[in-house]
């Protein structure tokens, strides 16, 4: 099963990129033992449209086109909070149902268009606060790693 972190915008070199890479590198060997592939990161270009609605629509078209038939778990402030064990179980459930890919989608500065919400198989939030998409990318990478540790019984996740 392919796993993809799909994000609008480019993460520049620096501590944020280092953290994302560190979590994804840590998850790779665990993912393989669990029947998941390594996690790919796809950076979609930010729209240059003048109006926010147009930018969101252009970015949504790129996201939806790239996700294909895979599962879409979109990270959005309007989503539901999901405890880490539930996140892990949901990923395992999709794997066990034979789903070929999970796309973890992070919008740009203007958020996600309704078209992405409609396409999503789930909307998840990291609390009620609005977070910069760079931090959300770190949190998504960490949750993927945490899910792998939960599923393998690794002691990283403590209750």
Topology:
Layout: E1 2-8, H1 15-34, E2 39-44, H2 52-67, E3 71-80, H3 84-96, E4 101-106, H4 114-119, E5 122-124, H5 133-152
Parallel strand pairs: 1-2, 1-4, 3-4, 3-5
Strand arrangement, major sheet: 2-1-4-3-5
Q: Please state roughly what percent of the residues sit in beta strands, choosing from under 5%, 5-15%, 15-25%, 25-35%, 35-45% or over 45%.
A: 15-25%
Please state the structural category: alpha/beta
What does the main sheet amount to? 5 strands, parallel
State the low-pLDDT regions, or none: none
In DSSP terms (H or I, runs of 4 or more residues), the helix count works out at: 5
Amino- and carboxy-terminal Cα gap: 27 Å
Gyration radius, to the nearest Å? Answer: 15 Å
Q: Helix coverage percent of residues? A: 40-55%
The overall pLDDT, averaged over residues, is 94
Number of beta-strand segments: 5
Q: Would you list the SSEs in sequence order as H and E?
A: EHEHEHEHEH
Morphology call: globular
Describe the 3D structure.
With 159 residues, the chain is α/β, with parallel strands linked by helices. The chain has 5 helices and 5 strands; from the N terminus they run βαβαβαβαβα. A 5-stranded parallel beta sheet has the order 2-1-4-3-5. The longest helix has 20 residues. The two termini are 27 Å apart.
């Amino acid at each position: 099963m392919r796993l993809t972190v799909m994000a609008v915008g480019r993460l520049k070199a620096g501590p944020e990129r280092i953290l994302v890479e560190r979590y994804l590198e840590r998850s790779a060997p665990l993912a393989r033992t669990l029947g998941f592939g390594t996690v790919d990161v796809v950076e979609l270009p930010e729209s240059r449209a003048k109006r926010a609605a147009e930018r969101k629509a252009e970015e949504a078209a790129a996201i939806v086109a790239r996700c294909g038939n895979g599962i879409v778990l979109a990270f959005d402030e309007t989503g539901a909070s999901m405890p880490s064990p539930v996140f892990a179980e949901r990923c395992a459930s999709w794997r066990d149902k034979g789903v070929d890919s999970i796309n973890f989608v992070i919008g740009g500065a203007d958020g996600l268009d309704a078209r992405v919400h409609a396409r999503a198989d789930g909307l998840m939030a990291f609390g009620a606060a609005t977070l910069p998409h760079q931090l959300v990318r770190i949190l998504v990478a960490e949750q993927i790693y945490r899910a792998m540790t939960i599923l393998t019984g690794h002691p990283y996740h403590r209750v």
